[in-house]
Structures are given as structure tokens and as C-alpha cells.
Amino acid sequence: MSLNHGREQLAIPGPSVIPDRVLAAMHRPSPNIYEGELIDLTASLYPDLKAVARTAHSAAIYISNGHGAWEAALRNTLVEGDGILVLATGRFADGWADLAESLGIDCTRIDFGMQGQADPAKLEEALQADTEKRYKAVLVVQTDTASSVRNDIPALRQAIDTAGHDALFMVDCIASLGCDRYEMDQWGVDVTVAACQKGLMTPAGIAFLFFNEKAAAARGRARPGLYWDWHPRANPEIYYQQFGGTAPTQHLYGLRAALDMIVHEEGLENVWNRHETLAQAYWAAVDAWGAGGKICHNIADRQKRSCAVSTIETAPEDAARLRKWTEKEAGITLGIGLGFGTPGSAGYNRRFRIGHMGHQNIPMTFGVIGAIDTALKALGIDHGDGALEAAAKVMAANTTAKE
Fold first, then answer.
1. Are 259 and 327 in the same domain?
2. pLDDT digits (tens, 9 = 90+) for 273-295
């Protein structure tokens, strides 16, 4: 008998759970794309997007996934033959570097592996050695979705400044924007890359670039091409220039509803605090399971963990068994062991990921923890008890509604 006959839940690190309000806002006929409501709605998005990124600088919207935003960031600031320094933590900074190399950009990578955080001291050392200022940009992700490490962006900025280097500082916030604290202007980031399908709770299909004056000036030597050029998108003379053509109409209505929830109702500081509390509830559950088995966090130091995603290690094959059981029997889809080998390999099959980003609350958190706990028991996997109680204590200690 299967108990999976209710509402299914995604617990992968993006695309994340889409709120009913966002779905309802998108479920409408296509609007007039030349004048009227859509033009006004689009204009209202930019101040709120900037508020989420914590920047007063420019913003551009692209009809793409995060990879498209990666390419746009590179095309607007670099030319073939330029050198860049990539701080490779987990999998996704490497992906950004691969794309850069396909554009003829010379990439130097400092590899911190699948469990390491980018080391500011190594960054400073590399930049001090670059006496000819060959590196035009430093690339890093704030949160790596595969490993769940969270990099210390202010510390990396300080390393660049201490080295006295003028490279652009580019940060991928695709997995972290609207989940982990991020302060673009305060932390001295020149280019921020983001997308809509994770913390911003909107179906995949639109991405964002936020860029300051230093990055805008770099465009003067670049040749981004008409479609990727961020200048007309951020400074349009005609509405369609904001999207390089037809607007992603339904997505814009959905994004408007999502930003209302984040910025104008819950408030960004509260959103960050909620993500931190729910993440800590998951961490407490994992610690409880690990007390009686071989389940553990991929990132041991909680100060280096993302509040958007948790990567969990198990005994060989157990993660694959868990993922299969929770999806079939409980309607909970867990993330795969991305970046730890090819599908079916030993490293891949002993890891799973929990996405706790965006539209998440206490019952949804208990649903995922309860499903995993049930799977551990059903499959006879060694584990400690008390996961649900440990998670409950964390959430109870951080609620505001106390009698």
C-alpha cells in the first residue's frame, strides 16, 4: 500500500515550491504588451528586485535560466582573451567557468572541492601575484546548490581590497537570493547574478543581473551583442527593450505576486530569519539521525552552511534508496547527489539534498522531515531517534507568537 495520495511536495533546491498566489496571478489571458497595465506592473518590479538584492544600482531582466544570466554577465564586462579568477566551491562556479571558457575567456580556477568554502587568504595571495592585472574579474557563488556551502562574500571582498586589485567582483546568488542574507552594495559586489525559480518562488524562465557603475563602465570595451546587452534592458527607450523582444508576460505577473509576499508583506529581514530557523530545524533533525547511524552534513561547520539547501551524506546506497522511497511512498521529491559523481555512481548514491528555500513553513518542514524519518524506519537504515522533536524545539524557540 502507498500513502502517496495527497498533495505532492518538491523538496529539491529549485525549482522551488510555487505559492498558490503566484500560480493564480499567472493564470490569466495574455495582456496588451504595448501599453497599459503590463507596462506599469513591469516598472513596479525593479524597485523591489533591487530591494531584495540590497542595491541602489542598475537591474536587468532576461528571459532565461541562470546560465543565461551567467553569459550575460560575462558578455557585458569581458572580451575574448581576458583572464578571470574563479573560486570553485562545489559544482556551479565550475559551470560558470566552463561557460566563460566557451567564450574564449582565460579561466584560472582555485578548487576548494565539494566541502570547502572559498578561502579569502588564497584569493588575496592569487591577486597579489597578478602583478600585471591579468584578472579582469573574480567569480564566485554565494551558495553552491550541489554542496550547500555558503561563501563569505564580505571576507572575499576584503581580500580583493587588501590585495589592491581592481578586478570586478561577480557573485552568483541564484540559489541564495531571498534566502540567505545578501547585501550587494554594502559588501562591495560589482555584479550579482540571480534567477526567479528558487528564493523568488516563480517558475523557471527569468533571470536578473544587478550591476554598479564600475561594471557598467566595463561594458564600454565589451561586445555583448544586441540580445545580451544590459544597457537597453536597464535603460529602455521603448518597453520591449527591457526583454530584448516580447515580454515574459505571465512570469511578470507571477513575479509581482512573489515580490509582494517577500518585500511588502513578510519583509526581507523576516524572510531571512525564517529561512535560517527552518534550516536549523533540518540541521537538528540530521544531527539526531546521525547520532545512531551514518547520516551527516556535507558541510560540517554550520557557519558555512546555506539556509537555502542542505546536502546530506549517508552510508553507501542509502541516499538513493531514501530518494526513491520518499517520492514513491510519500510524495516528497528530494534532491539528487549532484556534483558527487555520475548518476548511479557510489558518491552520487550516498548523498541527497533538501531544498528549504522560498515558500516554506512549519508543516512543510515537518512533512519532509517526517517522510525521511519514516523512510529510514521502513528501509531499516540505522539512525538516531528524536529528529522531529529536535526540529520542533528549534522552531518553537524562534516563533514570536508566545502566550
1. no
2. 999 999 999 999 999 999 999 99
